[in-house]
Design brief:
Radius of gyration: 26 Å
Oligomer: single chain
Helix content: 40-55%
Number of strands: 0
Structural class: mainly alpha
Length: 136
């Protein structure tokens, strides 16, 4: 997603339009898109401000937002549950199909992670490929 135009530029575009210039002329003069010039003028007319609106989706409104408590409850009851098992439980209990990665993001936002702690023993598997030979 691209960034919003700076407030300084928005003010200069608005002054140009307010001074009698067209939106198309303002776009050419300030080297912005015509749609940006139109939106700047509309923002001033409708909202009375040139401040950009907040970008992105508001937090807590995704498909899984109503089920965070359900997911956290299952994880706390059974800490070793896999994400695939969580997805299956969510689908069987509530009829909501969700990818395990989405469930992982929701649980991470809720403060639960599946990362190993530093006190965990190392994996029993050793190196699977040989070391590279040194070239001389």
């Amino acid at each position: 997603m691209s960034r919003a135009l700076s407030l300084d530029l928005r003010e200069r575009v608005w002054k140009f339009i307010e001074g009698g210039g067209s939106r198309h002329a303002a776009a050419r003069h300030f080297r912005i898109s015509v749609s940006s010039a139109v939106r700047i003028a509309a923002s001033q007319a409708e909202r009375g401000t040139l401040e950009p609106r907040k970008q992105g989706r508001p937090p807590g409104r995704g498909k899984l937002a109503p089920y965070v408590g359900f997911l956290v409850e299952i994880v706390e009851a059974e800490p070793d549950i896999t994400l695939d098992e969580l997805a299956a439980a969510l689908e069987s209990e509530h009829g909501v199909h969700a990818h395990p990665a989405s469930i992982s993001r929701v649980l991470t936002r809720a403060g639960l992670t599946y990362k190993k702690s530093r006190s965990m023993p190392r994996s029993a598997r050793g190196r699977t490929s040989g070391r590279r030979a040194r070239t001389g």
